[in-house]
Amino acid sequence: MQDYAFGTAGAFKLPAGVEAFGADCSILSRTTEEHYTNTQALMQQVLQLAHERGMQFAMGFEFGVLPPEFFSLQDGQSGFYWPGEANMIPDPTHPLSIQLLYAAIDNILETYKGVDWIWLWLNEHSFMGVDPARALQQPSFRAIYDQNISLFANEGADEKTKFIGVWSLQYLRLAKEYLQRKAPDVKLMLGGWGGGNQLPLLLKGLNKGLPKDIAFSCLNPDLGKSPQPAFLAEISKNRVVMAIPWLEGDHQLWHYQPRVQLMKEHVQLAGRQGLQGVAAIHWRTKETAFTLRSFARFAKDAGDLAALPALYFEYLTETCGPLAAHTLTPFFVEMDTLACQRGSLSPEYYAYTPQWGALNLQERARMQKLIVNLESLLQKVREPAYRRELEWFRSTFRFELLLDETGRCLEPAYRLRAKYLQSGGKPVDPAALQSARQQFEKAPVEQLFKTFAAKQQSRGELGILSSLNQKLWTEYLSLQTFLQKMN
């Protein structure tokens, strides 16, 4: 952390002796055992807080996904993993698979006394690398497959879909039977990803083959931009079904993502479909606060007719004051309605590229106009609480402009380095090198980092600041080294 750019390490107030940023249960643990104990203690507190508020608590895991340590514990001959599988998918009829499933459930039941739900999640990569023909050479699973394949013979279902359908069905049946014996008061829920060839393709078949007291839940497709599938309405007639809207997409975690209109549409759709509930997924807290509040509002009353301008006016009046609400409401409504930021990428689970944060001319102009209005308001508003929020918004949108500008300045050097490496180290064009250096020197990286560091109001933002240092700053230094060597 001492290598963080432009003194931004100073934004992190770490406990004595700690050199890394993270959850206290991780950074304060000295051994692996302490790490697990402290993490479980944190989640035990979550369970207690939920129950104190009349809320139910669910804990779960991805079924059929095992720690890599188990690869070395099986003999390779027993059929625990099917041969030739890229993802080492376990056979759910093998005694070791069953034992490990039961052990995971037991661990939850013993660690989280009073847990209400076991939530089994379909691994989003479960369809990758599957070779049904080879896996079906295993007689015990072949018998189950033949008995249940007709459940998944719907339109559009290929062999991999049918295979994963039966594979999932077996795991869920095992879990249900075990819970019925071990903890009959604990309910079982299925969850999974909603896009592409993932959970939605399986739900109709699973609905036919599973007991009706197993609840279904599914993330909304397209990182939450698209609504839940229409066929959930039919399934919800005979079992509990929950849609899971996204408060933010995970491909833009360096950006402000207004999604109030989406929350209204998706939650109200769930009401019309007769779904028994909705859940919400997010990573950050400060940035998604109003989206979460809007989600809760419409979840409580799906018939609420409040329009988007009224929602934002109420929110901005409360947080930034009445004067700001009159000025800013049209900007926030426009951002939310047009979803103008959803095209700007910052998928921090990947390595940084200069395309992160790229804005078109219209988006830049809209952002600049918004910042001008925020600065004008800051000259008029005196209440400290209102000013704090206005300054946070100004820094948030300034950072997005600076991220776009920084990427534009780094891109020539980035492309030049890629061309140099792809050519096997052939000499670069002197004019192109000079131009890349000139653009590189214009990158407002110091202003970018200091702008973001100055707006910290949550640990989530500290996480992004850490990510900025690890990804953008290290890439900047790498490009700087490349340009220096190209003499």
Describe the protein in words.
The chain contains 17 helices and six strands. It is mainly α and 487 residues long. It has a six-stranded parallel sheet. Strand 1, helix 3 (95-111) and strand 2 (117-121) form a beta-alpha-beta unit. The radius of gyration is 26 Å and the shape is globular.
Topology:
Blueprint: H1 24-27, H2 32-52, E1 58-62, H3 95-111, E2 117-121, H4 132-135, H5 139-148, H6 159-182, E3 187-191, H7 200-209, E4 215-219, H8 232-235, E5 241-244, H9 260-273, E6 277-278, H10 289-300, H11 308-320, H12 322-338, H13 361-378, H14 384-422, H15 430-441, H16 445-453, H17 459-485
Parallel strand pairs: 1-2, 2-3, 3-4, 4-5, 5-6
Biggest sheet strand line-up:
1-2-3-4-5-6
Dominant shape: globular
How many DSSP H or I helices?
17
Q: State which percent range the strand residues make up.
A: 5-15%
Provide the residue-averaged pLDDT: 92
* Secondary structure category: mainly alpha
Q: Helices and strands, in N-to-C order? A: HHEHEHHHEHEHEHEHHHHHHHH
Percentage of residues in helical conformation: 40-55%
Number of E-state strands: 6
Separation of the first and last Cα atoms: 31 Å
Largest sheet: 6 strands, parallel
| CA gyration radius, whole angstroms | 26 Å
Low-confidence stretches: none
Oligomer: single chain
